[in-house]
Structure formats: structure tokens, C-alpha cells
Amino acid sequence: MIHLEHVLQNLKKDLQDMANLVQTQLTRSRDALLHFDKSIANQVLHTEKRVNAYELKIDSLCENIVALYNPVAQDMRAVFAYYKINSHLERMGDYAKNIANNVLELEVGYDEQLLEDLDILSMFEIANEMITENIVALISGNPQSAHHVFEMDMALNALHDNGIEIVVAAIKKDTEQTRALLDLASTVRRLERVGDYNTNIAEELIFCFEAKVLKHQDSSNK
Q1: 221: which residues sit within 8 A by CB, 6+ positions away?
Q2: CB 208 within 8 A of CB 141
Q3: Is 63 in contact with 147 (CB distance < 8 Å)?
Q4: How many helices (H) does the chain have, and how many strands (E)?
């Protein structure tokens, strides 16, 4: 294995570790929200520093690879893809942090029936499963798993649209809870955005391994 291949393997491993950490952040923000556990929410905020550290490290590695090894063809696609994936993962980590922040600002937890009606648990589960599919594609070098992400995003979008309608109805029913319910709507929106960033990652992986550009294509064609 030449040195560049070794460096790229290490870079891929760092991306996998960062993706796993972001999954943990989403899981903790989910638990903090569902169980109204501010100690877990604080864990998310504390761990955010590690997510940011990974982003800086991976950015630096990508820049150094370009400067020192002058990669071409497949290797260059990989470096560009990993650089963008790194940014998308960091943004997902930010959303997990924001959800945890909302929990810390709550005086009381959300009504369990409301959370069940929103199917917020499924939104978190789909978002994390999308990350898993992308990790599999990244590590295996086979983009087939990444193709599954687009269908999952459609399911997440449907839950988002339904969830916003439910929150709006809840606000009309109890205007005194408007602030807290708007924060809940923000959580629904952030989970939908996590899905969008996962589709961006899937597009980068497909570009990396198949040299196909899917950006701006309709989801049904991906």
C-alpha cells in the first residue's frame, strides 16, 4: 500500500468515527427530549467540542493531502467528497446540540401523547439509520447503501410535514404554550434537515465511488 492510500484510509476512519459520534449526539438529544432529562442534554453540549475538533482535524487532513500528494482521479474525488461530508456531519452535530439546548430551556417536559402523535421517535430513528447507511457505503466503498438514503429521506419528509401540522394545531389549542411548541416545531424541522444533510452525504459517496453527479436530480431518479 503506497503512503497516499494509507493516509486516505486513516482519513476515512476519522470520518467514520465522527459519524458515529454524531449518531451518539442525536441519540442523546432524543433521550433528553423524550425523557426530559437535562443531564443528558448537558452531555450533548459538552460532547459538541469533540465534534468540532473532528471537523478541524479532517479539514486539515484533506488540505494536507491535496498540498502534499497532489491526488488525481479517484483519489481526488475521494478527498473532495470527504471534505464535504465532514462539513455535513458537523452541521448534523449542531442540530443535535440545538435540540439539547431547547430541552434545557424547557420548564416542563412535553406531553407524551403529543410526542407520540408527532412520531418524533421515528424521526430520530430514521435520521440515525440514514447515517448508518452512509457509513456502510463509506467503509465498504460500495455506494449501494447510500442509494437507500434517498427513500428514507422521503419518509422523514412526510413525518416532518405531518409533525408541523400537529404542532400548529397544538398551538391553536393552547396559546400559552406557544414558545415551547415553536421550539418543538424547530426540533421537527432540524430532524428533517439532518435527513437533507444525509442525502448530501449520499450524493458525495455516489460521486466518489461511481463518478456520478446526482445533485439537483429528482429523488425518484437517484
Answers
A1: 214
A2: no
A3: no
A4: 7, 0
Task: Tell me what the mean pLDDT of segment 181-204 comes to.
Answer: 97
The pLDDT-based confidence of 1 (bands split at 50, 70, 90) is very low
**Rounded distance between C-alpha atoms, residue 15 and residue 18, angstroms:** 5
Here the CATH number for the domain that contains residue 168 is: 1.20.58.220
Give residue-wise pLDDT tens across range 116-150: 999 999 999 999 999 999 999 999 988 889 999 99
Q: Which of 81, 218, 215 shows the shortest CA–CA distance to 154?
A: 218
For the chain, the average pLDDT equals: 93
Please state the separation of Cα 213 from the chain's center in Å: 21
Q: Given phi > 0 = left and psi -120 to 50 = alpha, else beta, which region is 215?
A: beta
50, 200, 191, 166: CA torsion to nearest 10: 170
Q: Which residue type occupies 102?
A: N
Give the relative orientation of helices 38-69 and 3-35 as an angle to the nearest 10 degrees. 160
Number of structural domains found in the chain: 1
SS (H, E, C) 115-163: HHHHCHHHHHHHHHHHHHHHHHHHHHCCCHHHHHHHHHHHHHHHHHHHH
In the block, cell 435527513 appears at: 195
118 is in which domain, residue-wise?
A: 3-221
**3-class DSSP string for 179-210:** HHHHHHHHHHHHHHHHHHHHHHHHHHHHHHHH
Cell 488540505 sits on residue: 63
The whole model's pTM is what?
Answer: 0.92
